[in-house]
Design a protein that fits this description.
15 strands; globular; seven-stranded mixed β-sheet; Aspartate Aminotransferase, domain 1; 2 domains; 471 residues; Aspartate Aminotransferase, domain 2; four-stranded antiparallel β-sheet
Length: 471
């Protein structure tokens, strides 16, 4: 039993009776001084309390998706904002998932940390042919929790304090906060539309990088460039000439290229997707990111991957093994079986990668015609799930929509459209850096990766809108 020391043994210590007396005095003062004492206690607590959140979270706590998804859930709207299919994945993929759940009971257990072996093997075989590389499934493939997880792992593995990351805007909105969380500094360069003939729809192919401006963004501190082709939200597919420009600058400045190619199978009008890793000298400095969710129309599966040289991937594996360690086994098994099926049918009319873009292009064309009927001006996308549409005429006719004075116009327009017209879109300014939001605040993004019934529901809303516009 612990011995209680006496005052004689510890003359420098207060006696227990003294401590009780002092506490009583403090209580008496507290009751007399009241709120002043409470204020002093609170001030002392604030001074002594450590900051709870890590500094890496400063400035990135607000996510516009939370606001706009909540807005859509509170109203009777046709949701054309969020990028997910509202139709089933192909039968062979669903059957593969069902088999993974009901078949080998060991698929309920852990698999190898960096990917289920049949999946890494088929990814190496399938993409090795496309990229012109002899891909080792153990060294050149990493399976992640969706492409989102692949991006996060890449930024954490390669971007250090003070490193600069070049981001082409408009950009998928996670690129900036992921750069900041890694301690990096985002450097933005904008795609700019070229003039088009009067009466013609603009095309995403007309949106170009200025070569001189792009070159000026590279410095001795540049660590990486993030490329998204086909681009979200614009739908631009970068041409070979544009990719060669990016590749030349990356090689000249010893910069890593992180290329987000999740929509690579969704290209239209005979357009060709080219992986920058296939260009001379680029495999050694490129991370190519893909997504089973976008590939097989099953975004909830959250199976993604990164392909690249071992010199880069070894660092991603370090992050991966010290964060999630490995991804769910059954989803990986289903994706492996789906790719095995596609490898047998690749390039043939029976291939899902042939059939899907044909079907989605019809949805794209349907949506563009419908949006034009109410005075919206779609920018024809070469690829992806999305198109953006110009709302400049509405901005000139309805400049004073409700909202904060400093809120970009496209955000106020979307809120008005949700409440007044029952249609949900996403403002393009959320895909831009703050200094450049005003350059893009007259565009909104629609997702056309939707079922025919959803497009028909859209048509009904637009018809009502068109009737209201008639004099």
């Amino acid at each position: 039993m612990m011995k209680l020391e006496t005052a004689a043994e510890t003359p420098s210590c207060l006696k227990i009776t003294d401590m009780i007396r002092d506490y009583a005095v403090i209580q008496a003062l507290d009751s007399q001084l009241g709120s002043f004492c409470a204020f002093l206690r609170l001030s002392l607590w604030l001074v002594m309390t450590k900051q709870l959140q890590a500094r890496r979270l400063d400035g990135i706590d607000h996510n516009p998706w939370v606001e706009f998804v909540k807005l859509a859930s509170e109203a009777d709207v046709v949701n054309l904002g969020q990028g997910f299919p509202d139709f089933p994945p192909p039968d062979f993929a669903v059957e593969a998932f069902q088999h993974a759940i009901s078949g080998d009971f060991m698929l309920n257990q852990y698999t190898k940390a960096f990917g289920y072996p049949p999946l890494t093997k088929i990814l190496a075989s399938f993409f090795g042919k496309l990229l012109g590389q002899d891909i080792d499934p153990l060294k050149n493939v990493l399976v992640t929790v969706g492409a989102y997880g692949a991006l996060f792992t890449a930024f954490q593995a390669l971007v250090d304090e003070g490193d600069e990351v070049i981001i082409i805007e408009p950009f998928f909105d996670c690129y900036e906060p992921m750069t900041l969380m890694a301690g990096g500094r985002p450097v933005f360069v904008s795609l700019k539309p070229s003039p088009n003939q009067d009466g013609e729809l603009d095309s995403s192919s007309n949106w170009q990088l200025d070569p001189t401006e792009l070159a000026s963004k590279f410095t001795s501190r540049t660590k990486a460039l993030i490329l998204n082709t086909p681009n979200n939200p614009l739908g631009k597919v970068f041409s070979r000439a544009e990719l060669e420009l990016v590749a030349s600058l990356c090689q000249q400045h010893d910069v890593v290229c992180i290329t987000d190619e999740v929509y690579q199978w969704l290209v239209y009008d005979g357009c060709q997707h080219i992986s920058i890793a296939t260009l001379p000298g680029m495999w050694e400095r490129t991370l190519t990111i893909g997504s089973a969710g976008k590939t097989f129309s099953a975004t909830g599966w959250k199976v993604g991957w990164v392909l690249g040289p071992d010199s880069l991937l070894r660092h991603l594996r370090t992050v991966h093994q010290n964060s999630i360690f490995h991804c769910p086994t059954q989803g990986q098994a289903a994706v492996a079986q789906s790719f095995e099926r596609e490898q047998l049918h690749f390039g043939q009319p029976s291939s899902y990668f042939v059939q899907l873009p044909q079907a989605v292009q019809r949805c794209r064309d349907h949506m563009m015609q419908s949006l034009k009927s109410v005075g919206l001006k779609p920018v024809v996308p070469q690829g992806s799930y999305f198109l953006i549409t110009d709302i400049s005429e509405f901005k000139s006719k309805m400049p004073n929509l409700p909202g904060a004075a400093d809120e970009p116009y496209d955000r106020r327009f979307v809120k008005w459209m949700v409440k007044s017209k029952g249609l949900m879109a996403i403002p393009v300014s959320i895909f831009c850096s703050v200094p450049h939001q005003k350059l893009f605040d007259h565009y909104i993004r629609f997702c056309f990766m939707k079922d025919e019934s959803t497009l028909q529901a859209m048509d009904k809303k637009l018809q009502k809108w068109k009737d209201e516009l008639r004099p």
